[in-house]
């Protein structure tokens, strides 16, 4: 019992975790305060649109933390985490579609509008149960978790590593994208799932619900960050780092490396699914483009720009890159990909450890140098 509590509370004793949680909670409080108390014409007022945009950034930050867990500490460059994100999003979207009921365009209480349009006469079996919130929320974890379990078991048992594993993960998400684009799959085809009405009885169009989703996403990010810190600061985390740096030596010492890889990979996939589930009600749509391999590559760029193997660097990278994307796509939509590529090249050349590495370097520069005066030694006893 003592070991279990120590494993869970260890991250809270780390200065980096304390600073991260303090900044995150302060940001959540400030945004909430400025949204609720300041009038719309006030220059510091945070509009509901901005709250929703920030909530989307936070869901991306949770996704980046999930990728940094497997890439930064396990050495697995996954180019398919967009698939886990999308599966969690689709699980949430299916629940939200079932909540529409007879308020849809065609007024069918059971079938979503796209199924009525495609002349479906019955709800597919895999849609059953998504009218219940507990079942849908469970599937947010189980759908990406089971996919990661099956895929990881086959890949890690076969000792597929390096660039080959990256290519396989990219092929996985590409195959899922092609499948979900088909109308016969029953997930809305290329239009996806949209026109959501309510979540747990709350109107998704109301300002209060938008603010609640923003706060829920921020708290999920905090929990996900602490969970990842607990993993990487434990004995499990040390084995993961050893596997990343010298897998053959770790196997030689008697560790079943594939078991550690599989556990961390499944946890990371579940975190990505939670991020997708929080993303969908805030943006109001989920479609097969979330399975796009380009999106999964963008996630890796967030982590690389922010700083690999730091967790908080992944959060910084996700928020900064997506904020830049919002600005560039509004001003110069055709130049965004060039700006992203240029940003990645500059950081790779000038900041190989990312923004987090630069922050750590500046903090070390500010620390006072250790004292150069010799420590006092005990006097020697006089010889007889």
UniProtKB/TrEMBL annotation:
<feature type="transmembrane region" description="Helical">
    <location>
        <begin position="208"/>
        <end position="228"/>
    </location>
</feature>
<dbReference type="InterPro" id="IPR043428">
    <property type="entry name" value="LivM-like"/>
</dbReference>
<feature type="transmembrane region" description="Helical">
    <location>
        <begin position="134"/>
        <end position="156"/>
    </location>
</feature>
<feature type="transmembrane region" description="Helical">
    <location>
        <begin position="335"/>
        <end position="361"/>
    </location>
</feature>
<feature type="transmembrane region" description="Helical">
    <location>
        <begin position="58"/>
        <end position="90"/>
    </location>
</feature>
<keyword id="KW-1003">Cell membrane</keyword>
<keyword id="KW-1133">Transmembrane helix</keyword>
<protein>
    <submittedName>
        <fullName>Amino acid/amide ABC transporter membrane protein 2, HAAT family (TC 3.A.1.4.-)</fullName>
    </submittedName>
</protein>
<feature type="transmembrane region" description="Helical">
    <location>
        <begin position="163"/>
        <end position="181"/>
    </location>
</feature>
<keyword id="KW-0812">Transmembrane</keyword>
<feature type="transmembrane region" description="Helical">
    <location>
        <begin position="299"/>
        <end position="323"/>
    </location>
</feature>
<dbReference type="GO" id="GO:0005886">
    <property type="term" value="C:plasma membrane"/>
</dbReference>
<dbReference type="InterPro" id="IPR001851">
    <property type="entry name" value="ABC_transp_permease"/>
</dbReference>
<feature type="transmembrane region" description="Helical">
    <location>
        <begin position="20"/>
        <end position="38"/>
    </location>
</feature>
<feature type="transmembrane region" description="Helical">
    <location>
        <begin position="260"/>
        <end position="279"/>
    </location>
</feature>
<keyword id="KW-0472">Membrane</keyword>
<dbReference type="InterPro" id="IPR017778">
    <property type="entry name" value="ABC_transptr_urea_perm_UrtC"/>
</dbReference>
<dbReference type="Pfam" id="PF02653">
    <property type="entry name" value="BPD_transp_2"/>
</dbReference>
<dbReference type="GO" id="GO:0015658">
    <property type="term" value="F:branched-chain amino acid transmembrane transporter activity"/>
</dbReference>
């Amino acid at each position: 019992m003592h070991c279990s509590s120590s494993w869970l509370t260890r991250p809270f004793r780390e200065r980096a975790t304390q600073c991260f949680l303090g900044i995150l909670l302060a940001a959540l409080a400030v945004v909430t305060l400025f949204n609720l108390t300041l009038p719309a014409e006030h220059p510091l007022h945070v509009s509901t649109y901005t709250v929703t945009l920030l909530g989307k950034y936070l869901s991306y930050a949770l996704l980046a933390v999930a990728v940094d867990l497997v890439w930064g500490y396990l050495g697995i460059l996954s180019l398919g985490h967009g698939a886990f994100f999308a599966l969690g999003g689709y699980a949430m979207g299916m629940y939200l579609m079932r909540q529409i009921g007879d308020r849809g365009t065609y007024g069918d209480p059971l079938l979503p509008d796209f199924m009525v349009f495609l002349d479906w006469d019955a709800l597919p079996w895999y849609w059953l149960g998504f009218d219940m919130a507990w079942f849908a929320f469970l599937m947010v974890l189980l759908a990406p978790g089971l996919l990661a379990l099956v895929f990881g078991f086959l890949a890690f048992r076969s000792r597929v590593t390096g660039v080959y594993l990256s290519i396989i993960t990219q092929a996985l998400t590409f195959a899922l994208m092609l499948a979900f684009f088909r109308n016969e799959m029953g997930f809305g085809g290329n239009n996806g799932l949209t026109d959501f009405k309510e979540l747990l009885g709350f109107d998704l169009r109301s300002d209060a619900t938008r603010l609640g989703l923003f706060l829920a996403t921020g708290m999920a990010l905090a929990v996900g960050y602490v969970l990842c810190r607990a993993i990487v600061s434990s004995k499990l985390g040390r084995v993961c780092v050893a596997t990343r740096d010298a897998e053959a030596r770790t196997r030689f010492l008697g560790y079943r490396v594939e078991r550690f890889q599989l556990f961390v990979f499944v946890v990371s996939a579940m975190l990505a699914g939670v991020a997708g589930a929080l993303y969908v009600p805030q943006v109001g749509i989920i479609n097969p483009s979330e399975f796009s391999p380009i999106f999964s590559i963008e996630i890796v760029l967030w982590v690389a720009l922010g700083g690999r193997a730091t967790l908080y660097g992944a959060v910084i990278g996700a928020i900064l890159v997506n904020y830049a994307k919002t600005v560039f796509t509004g001003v110069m939509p055709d130049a965004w990909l060039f700006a992203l590529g240029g940003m990645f090249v500059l950081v790779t050349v000038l900041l190989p450890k990312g923004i987090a590495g630069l922050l750590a370097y500046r903090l070390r520069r500010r620390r006072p140098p250790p004292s150069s005066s010799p420590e006092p030694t005990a006097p020697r006893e006089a010889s007889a």
